[in-house]
Amino acid sequence: MFKPAKLWRFFTDRPDLTETISKALGISPIVAKVMVNRGITSPAEAKTFLFGSSEVLADPCLMSGMDRAVERIKYAISERQKIVIYGDYDVDGVTATALVYRVLSRLGAVVDYYVPERQTEGYGLNNVALENIYQSGTCLVVTVDCGISASAEVANMAGRLDIIITDHHQPPEVLPSALAILNPKLSDDVYPDKNLAGVGVAFKLCQALWQSINGTTEVFMDYLDLVAVGTIADVAPIIGENRILVKLGLDKLALSPNLGLKALSSVCGLKPPDIDAGKVGFVIGPRLNAAGRVSHAAIGVELLITEDIQQASEIATDLENENSCRQMVEKEVLAEAEAKLAAIDLKNEKVLVLAEEGWHSGVIGIVASRLVEKFYRPVVMISIQDGIGKGSCRSIPGFNIYQALKECDDLLLRYGGHAQAAGLSVDESAIELLRERLNGVAADWLSEEDYHQVIKVDACVALADISSVFLEQLACLEPHGIGNPSPVFMTEDLAVADAKAIGREGRHLKLRVKGEQVAVDVVAWNMGDLAAELEIGDCVDLAFLPEYNEWQGRRKLQLKARDILMKNSMPNHVSLIDARDVSNKTAYCIEVIKASKQTIVVTDSRRQAVQLSRDLRLLLPDDRRQIYYYHDLMTDNMKKRIISRWQTGEFGILIWSGEEIPGGAAEYILYNVPSSRHIFNRLCAGFFQGQCPVRMHFLFGAANAKALTSELTTLFPDRLAVGRVYLFLKGTVQCGQSPFLTAEKIAAIISERGQGKLAPSAVAAALKILEELALLRRNETVLSQKIELLPEPKEKLDIEASLTYRKEMVARRERQQFAEEMAYMPLEKLWRQAIEFTGGLSHGMEEFD
Prior knowledge:
By secondary structure, this protein is α/β, with parallel strands linked by helices. 42% of the residues lie in helices and 19% in strands. Strands 19-24-23-20-22-21 form a six-stranded parallel beta sheet, sandwiched between helices. A five-stranded parallel beta sheet has the order 3-2-4-5-6, sandwiched between helices. It has a five-stranded mixed beta sheet with strand order 7-8-9-11-10, sandwiched between helices. Mean pLDDT is 88; it is low at 840-849.
């Protein structure tokens, strides 16, 4: 079974800010540090994060189209016009439908709702449904969690139905001609929070409507439990307004929940006071979802709007049964999908596109999520019926699946969604082309690192510090979710006291570890295969979440492992020397060279290799004939001559800037971070496979990482850099003229004018980006290039449409992340990570049987 290795990353310490927040709010330093890691930059932000209330929610009327939507609904209420809420069949859509229905009913509206059937109608507005709604005497349709891509359907009802769209999905280039569109992601929308779920946007409409009619929102806040459930189930970021809405909604759920939610909690065995975001996401959410996946989502809406206790109990029981049915169907589809994957080379398949006739469309989204968790690849699951495939897509960080589908627009009948989840319709004959296209997009957009799950470690803690008090302090950071994940901690050098596989087929791992006379239990889900590798007394590092294990009325502290690093991966002949805090790196190199005349110093640029070799020749006059440098801009003959002389021992000190670092040295000094992760990984892999004693000295520290951050802005063109190059060209080139310019010349002139520093390579990339955006045309020669500016388009350009821009940003991000790892990560973890990338260790990189 293929399992990508996990990468551990460590947040940069900001001790001054952490201490300031800790003292200002009177909170634990560890809680303050976690908040700093989440992007909090001041005590005021921290206070809002911890104690934010409904008072800090933004004015809903800031959302574009809100005033018009409110006035139209008020008119419909006053004139007794029938309003239909058109919803969606997932939890976000069901809760949004119930929310708007309850609010409009309470305001005296004539209101009904409609939720499409997943299997036969699919997602979003459809002409047949809208026609039936119109024929029933409806004057106004308010969509929730859908509609932003329904231009044709809205146009078809023009002059007959007024339609207000509330949605949170990514808007297409052409918007529907609706009466009003409420979506904070619209390009001209000034609403400050862009992360609202569909139920969140519906909430803002209800908030504005209630306030316009009643002058207050106090009673209206009774519906926040619905908002919380929908937001959590939709996996919306739990930051900003979402955090406040979810936190207040969970409080409401604990005290006096919606009658239907109370009945559903009871059927699930949950007590409302104990319900947190996790239980909503993994217990309540799936049961509400089950109706839309297996039968009809209207059952879920009825549960949330009923005022009849008996009816609520009956529906909740039905949903529990539906969920059991859903689990059985899901298990069958998952097994079939994994059987298909067994015949695929996952190392070469970057996006998993699976299709089958008759797969239940209600579970393919869940199965896609399961496969992403297991294989850490973007997944597209397609159910084929009558020659048409309906697909659900789930992705990984770094791969915007909605943007990827835009690259396949010509192959698709319909699509929509977010960065991490989307839906599509495709002709069966185009599925193979879709697979090839998506894999090509992934090859362009993603690096090797992107296919490895990242564990972000908040802090290193001692085992003795993990107590009930510690957990109570962390509780104030809840609720957790996207944007505010549960904190992950690391403890080093723990001794394994017990290890055994547990659960069905031994899928999980139960450990007991000891450290500093303290022992604690560890549970590691889906890591049961490690039980055979771990022995009593083994030393491990642990990345974990502290939690309580509640069983039969007993509450016991335990650690939930995110990853386990076995400490026996370092070969005896390799030594890692941590010298990242040295103030004089050149002096350090001199001391190493004096002790060993077989030394390679690894730099990150031609300039640095040349300069350092000159410095060392001056400071080591007796060894100056032993010191040579190498860089990629040398002629091929010169490169071959230097490598040959190194291999024959004609000199012993090599200052290196290039791709494949040669072997044969006893000392390797990483003066700066290598120019790519690949270079470092290959170096470590070579040592791992060798036998000769070797020492690696790491000199790239925190100060260097900070300096590199600013340097990267000159090497990889961001939006501002591309803009500067374009403005330079507009001021230099008249439309229709074609002067000869080089990237070097443009970079020099921009620098001379004090408009910023850009490397020639960055200017060259910026020119390519502008060409891809159809802003210029180039005719390149050997020595220069003719540049012709093209007329500016009337519509606003999206720089993300440039493949070169996306590649540059991926390269910049990867370089920055690698530099931070080199500066801050424990060396043994750097080593193990490099070996796992190259397949040198068995754990984490296994082949199919």
